[in-house]
TrEMBL record, chain A:
It comes from Nonomuraea glycinis. This is L-aspartate oxidase. GO terms for molecular function: L-aspartate oxidase activity; steroid dehydrogenase activity, acting on the CH-CH group of donors. Coiled coil: none annotated. The lineage of its organism: Bacteria, Bacillati, Actinomycetota, Actinomycetes, Streptosporangiales. Residues 12-355 form the FAD-dependent oxidoreductase 2 FAD-binding domain. It catalyses: L-aspartate + O2 = iminosuccinate + H2O2. Pathway: Cofactor biosynthesis; NAD(+) biosynthesis; iminoaspartate from L-aspartate (oxidase route): step 1/1.
UniProtKB/TrEMBL annotation, chain B:
This is Ferredoxin. Residues 1-30, 31-61 form the 4Fe-4S ferredoxin-type domain. InterPro entries: 4Fe4S_Fe-S-bd, 4Fe4S_Fe_S_CS, Fe-S_Ferredoxin. PROSITE patterns: 4FE4S_FER_1, 4FE4S_FER_2. GO terms for molecular function: 4 iron, 4 sulfur cluster binding; metal ion binding. Residues 111-135 are annotated as: Disordered. The keyword Iron applies. The keyword NAD does not apply. It comes from the Bacteria. Keywords: 4Fe-4S, Iron, Iron-sulfur, Metal-binding. It comes from Nonomuraea glycinis.
Length: 526, 135
């Protein structure tokens, strides 16, 4: 990356990413007295999965019985990878912060009994308000300033980041800071899922370049149903769906828990599957429309009435966005294994509260709020220690500073990664042989990318994203290979049962050499 | 994907250029945005939601609309009232009620929770996979 620095700023805390996790982090850091800069690849307020999709939340009033029951219910499906203490903290923090959001004027609905219902956030409204609050808290927001690399001291402390100013001539920006919060979201591999193409795993790569570790990367194969022509993966309404084959014959696929896998099998076999919301009681249909407008809008635009017309569906990959893996956090403040670097939202592992199953649907949104708040406050505290004044170097390598002649084309790399990670037969239905085959390709691709890939201006971002996706794919499949069993969303055709000895988290890391290591199991709590 | 920027309606406010998360628009010479990088469009409808005069139309397709598609026919879209629908359901714009006030998701999440019996490691029969996103 050769662009000249055209914007240089100093801050106590630099937040990368302006989805909910980044916005909550920036607000918390500012409220702790820090001078905060937030840089987003896109636009803080519209960018990221919550803005586009909206969030139902793990929102529970302070009723101990209710909260216990909610934690029990999740533990029963989470594959024994959660920690009760983290669940309790997230529930409490989310409840508290949503109360503040109400105070800032978010227009929650009021039910028949006159009670505000605060468990659901409509995306555009939520994120518009979060931007406003961040702004009013004194956060300096840089939109269309994607970060490409971290800045680090010689001893490896994160002290800022640099990137490109994509709408201002493509020059380089640098922010020197006392601490950095990564809130760059998960990685959906540019699958086109609505709202998720900004989430390419850049933050994971930047962190790994400073030695950060990841966890739960085998739980990275979330797929969701959308109309076959589109990419709108809103799933809540599918609880009313019946499915049909290409000839219009009803398919008996069971309830929502089993239907998705059966649909995946059929689609992977090249069959067509159609859905219709037959089971929606007429009296509920208006409420359905009002509650999930971005499920209905793409159908309305296509002239399809999903209550009466069956429409073809497909499964769109959402990777670690609605998967659970990400950067490993090593403290209650969401510190990563890198000093000065904190992780919030989907860039961090969510295993602690949702285990081996998707947290999309309630847990991930709550995690973004709580982890953002904790990471922001902790980064502010770390910054006051003043380590950020030290000398720093830019840490970016693959896709940015190739060690050989620059010849690579980002678009080809992206296609090559997608060939390995998008097909249902590779990633939804996993086998050891398939994973090994994909890893051979991805490892070769990495060697190539590290040696040759780079770009200028907008091309620099494209190259870096491509590199991040290769890294993500390798961590994901290496972890999937290490987990020689089926658990939660990680389904191995060759190992269809869960292995009790693997009821523990698996760490993964490394760039040129990728390693995995099972976490030492804790004493079972009786 | 984004298909239409209405020359007649656009008031050259630049909002879409700023809010598009994927940086799809560029400012045209006359100040009206042009669709400069359609391939990058992620069909998120955010530009539609934020355009103050309903000058944009995003087709529901994840690829570009084929030539001659009604999704690119501005006159027909205007006629059908197809522009500005997202902003209307969000309740944005003067005199509207925020759409979030009509949100009844609690009904549907409660219904789902009541109907689900978790069992990840079911020994036999149909394996219930609960790793599925649902919202
Ligand atoms: C369709 C859908 C529905 C969902 N529904 C629910 C639900 O009902 N309940 C629930 O709990 N969860 C749900 N989720 C998950 C939830 O939306 C996410 O967990 C949450 O948005 C995570 O917040 P985040 O800020 O970490 O990531 P995001 O919201 O994805 O934001 C990431 C931000 O980082 C920015 N960024 C990326 N790379 C860079 C870079 N290099 N430099 C600077 N900025 C960068 C992006 O532009 C973006 O603004 C859903 C997800 C999807 C896809
Ligand atoms: S937001 Fe609407 S009015 Fe503003 S520049 Fe874009 S198209 Fe024109
Ligand atoms: S739909 Fe989304 S990605 Fe496409 S142009 Fe509009 S704001 Fe940009």
């Amino acid at each position: 990356m050769t662009a000249e620095v055209t914007l240089l700023r100093h801050a106590d805390v630099l937040v990368l990413g302006g989805g909910p996790a980044g916005a909550w982090a920036a607000i918390a850091a500012a409220e702790a007295g820090a001078d905060v800069v937030l840089a987003d690849k896109g636009y803080c307020g519209t960018s990221g999965s919550a803005a586009a999709g909206g969030n139902n939340l793990w929102y529970l009033p302070p009723d101990p019985a209710l909260r216990e029951a909610a934690m029990d219910a999740r533990e029963a499906i989470a594959g024994r990878l959660t920690e009760r203490r983290w669940m309790e903290r997230v529930i409490e923090e989310t409840y508290h912060q949503i109360g503040r959001l109400a105070g800032w004027g978010y227009p929650f609905p009021v039910d028949e009994g006159g009670v505000e219902r605060r468990g659901s956030l409509q995306g555009p409204e939520y994120m518009r308000r979060m931007r406003r609050k961040a702004h009013r808290s004194g956060v300096r927001i840089l939109d269309h300033h994607p970060a490409l690399e971290l800045l680090a001291t010689p001893d490896g402390t994160a002290v800022g980041a640099a990137g490109i100013r994509r709408q201002d001539g493509g020059g380089r920006w640098e922010v020197r800071a006392g601490a950095v919060v990564l809130a760059t979201g998960g990685c959906a591999f540019l699958s086109g899922a609505f709202g998720l193409d900004v989430d390419t795993g850049d933050g994971h790569l930047m962190a790994a370049e400073l030695g950060a570790e990841l966890s739960g990367m085998e739980f990275s194969n979330a797929y969701a149903l959308s109309p076959a022509y589109g990419a709108h993966t809103k799933g809540l309404m599918m609880q009313f769906a019946s499915y049909y084959d290409e000839a219009g014959r009803p398919l008996e696929l069971g309830d929502m828990g089993t239907a998705r896998q059966a649909v995946a099998r059929l689609l992977a076999d090249g069959r067509q599957v159609l859905a219709r919301l037959d089971q929606a009681p007429p009296g509920l249909r208006e409420a359905m429309r009002r509650s999930q407008p971005n499920y209905f809008l793409p159908l309305d635009k296509a002239g399809i009435d999903p209550f009466t017309q069956a429409y073809p569906v497909r499964l769109v990959m959402e990777g670690t966005v609605r998967g659970t893996g990400g950067l490993r956090v090593v403290g209650e403040d969401c510190a990563t294994t890198v000093p000065g670097l904190y992780a919030a939202g989907d860039v961090a592992t969510r295993e602690l509260i949702t285990g081996s199953v998707s947290g999309g649907g309630s847990h991930n949104g709550a995690w973004a709020i709580s982890s953002g708040t904790w990471a922001g406050a902790a980064a502010a505290a770390f910054a006051t220690r003043g380590e950020g004044r030290a000398r720093s170097r830019p840490a970016g390598r693959a896709g940015l500073r190739p060690h050989g002649p620059a010849t690579g084309a980002a678009a080809e790399v992206v296609r090559a990664v997608q060939d390995e990670v998008l097909p249902l037969d590779r990633n939804y239905f996993r086998t050891a042989a398939g994973l090994r085959r994909s890893l051979t390709s991805l490892d070769r691709l990495w060697t190539d990318v590290a040696a040759h890939l780079s770009g200028e201006g907008r091309g620099a971002l494209r190259a870096r994203q491509a590199a991040a996706m290769v890294a993500h794919g390798r961590w994901m499949y290496r972890a999937a290979l290490a987990r020689a069993e089926s658990r939660g969303m990680h389904q191995r055709l060759d190992r269809p049962e869960a292995d009790p000895r693997l009821a523990r988290r698996i760490h993964v890391g490394g760039l040129d050499e990728v390693w995995t290591a099972p976490e030492e199991p804790k004493e079972a709590v009786a | 994907m984004i298909e239409v920027v209405s020359q007649d309606r656009c008031v050259k406010c630049d909002v879409c250029v700023k809010v598009c998360p994927m940086d799809v628009f560029a400012l045209g010479p006359d100040g009206i945005p042009v669709i400069a990088r359609q391939d990058d469009c992620q069909t998120c409808f955010m530009c539609e939601a934020h355009c103050p005069v309903d000058a944009l139309f995003v087709a529901p397709l994840s690829g570009p609309a084929p030539a001659g598609s009604p999704y690119t026919d501005e006159a027909a879209l205007l006629e059908a009232g197809a522009m500005g629908r997202y902003r209307a359901v969000l309740g944005w714009g003067g005199g509207r009620t925020p759409g979030s006030r009509l949100d009844q998701n609690h009904v549907f999440t409660a219904r789902l929770a009541a109907g689900s019996q978790p069992a990840e490691e079911t020994p036999a029969g149909r394996r219930r996979v609960s790793g599925e996103p649902s919202a």
